[in-house]
Write a structure and sequence with these properties.
Length: 362
């Protein structure tokens, strides 16, 4: 199994973290302090280095501190003995550059997957409470880290989808319609969409048993939880679906069918966990979801992803937190980052792991 460590982290003007440097432990790192001091932003900066974007805010310019015109994040990683210096520089007007060993990427998408990462955050509750787009993003972020063709198909699909929607709007405003022109975009949607659908199906098949095992371990309960993939493409061919939805799409002026409408169904027993799961069951469900995400990425990439745990101590009882912390004693986990408001509580729990650690007060 390949090893991956973040040894040095430098942050300039990333929200309210300004001109700060960290020399990091290769096992456990804890950012502690009161709410609002930037603990979550420190974890998000690490995520940005790995994925080329923020986990919590997709508008890059909004991650720059209010008083500044730019932000810079730099990390020095060790990946199986090879040094990787990753630099992210972005400006308020929108320009973003990512460099690997001081050489800029031509396409930021080429960086995704180099530094595998998994984050567990309070915002993950949106996976249960919000709409299908949040759950698709979870699928896409996970699969893209280990599957470059999937990411390229995803980018091509979204580009084609935007073009087809623009064409439908043009047809409506001009009171004209050209089915032959539309069919060109239909063909491209099918070309990109079918491998996306297939990759998602295969992912969920591998993911489900890993997720179930993690849930049982953390909860200690015997209740049955499940995840299933819902797609209209399982019922009919994509070509037929596009043809059948043509009149509807013309009225709506956007594409109403395809992988961009797929969803994940989260259940406890035979019922939606959103409606029938207790608060504790939902929290355990979400953390199990992310630990299974870790498992899939580890298995497919043969590398231990960096694991970021944001504010989980306030979300779970001590027994369940210790179940998670104890996982780092297992060789199947690598470098861990934690945030908490209570330094003493964090340190007392970390000491029980017998692992080396560093505490950073913000």
């Amino acid at each position: 199994m390949k090893e991956l460590f973040l040894d040095q982290l430098s942050i300039v003007n990333y929200r309210n973290l300004t001109g700060i440097d960290f020399s990091l432990d290769r096992n456990i790192n804890c950012f502690v302090g009161n709410n609002g001091v930037g603990k979550t932003n420190a974890l998000d900066a690490i995520y940005f280095l790995a994925m080329g974007k923020s986990y919590s805010n997709s508008i890059t310019s909004q991650n720059i501190s209010h008083h500044a015109d730019f932000s810079m994040i730099e990390g020095v990683f060790d990946k199986s003995g090879k040094s990787l210096r990753i630099q992210c520089h972005f400006e308020r007007e929108g320009k973003k550059t990512i460099k690997r060993n001081r050489k800029a990427y031509k396409k930021i998408a080429d960086h995704v997957g180099l530094i595998p990462v998994v984050i567990i955050s309070p915002t993950d509750r949106d996976l249960i409470s919000e709409g299908s787009s949040v759950r698709r993003k979870f699928l896409d972020r996970t699969i893209s880290q280990s599957n470059k063709p999937y990411l390229q198909n995803l980018l091509g699909y979204q580009r084609t989808l935007n073009q087809r929607n623009a064409l439908l709007k043009h047809f409506a405003s001009s009171n004209q319609f050209d089915k032959d022109t539309l069919s060109v975009f239909n063909e491209k949607l099918v070309q990109f969409g079918l491998p996306i659908h297939q990759a998602r199906k295969e992912f969920v098949e591998e993911f489900q048993p890993l997720f179930h095992d993690r849930y049982q371990f953390i909860s200690g309960e015997t209740e049955v939880v499940s995840i299933s993939y819902e797609s209209k493409l399982d019922e009919r061919s994509f070509n037929d679906l596009l043809e059948e939805s043509l009149q509807k799409d013309r009225i709506l002026q956007y594409t109403s069918i395809g992988p961009h409408k797929d969803d994940l169904r989260f259940q406890i027993g035979d019922f939606p966990i959103k409606k029938f799961g207790s608060q504790g069951q939902q929290k355990t469900f979400l953390i199990s979801l992310k630990l299974a995400q870790f498992d899939v990425i580890r298995n497919q990439m043969n590398v231990l992803p960096i694991l970021l745990l944001d504010d989980i101590f306030d979300k779970l009882d001590d027994r369940r937190v210790m179940q998670i912390i104890n996982l780092v004693n297992d060789d199947s986990f690598g470098q861990l980052f934690i945030t908490d408001t209570n330094k003493e509580r964090t340190e007392n729990m970390i000491k029980q792991t017998a692992q080396s650690y560093s505490m950073f007060s913000l």
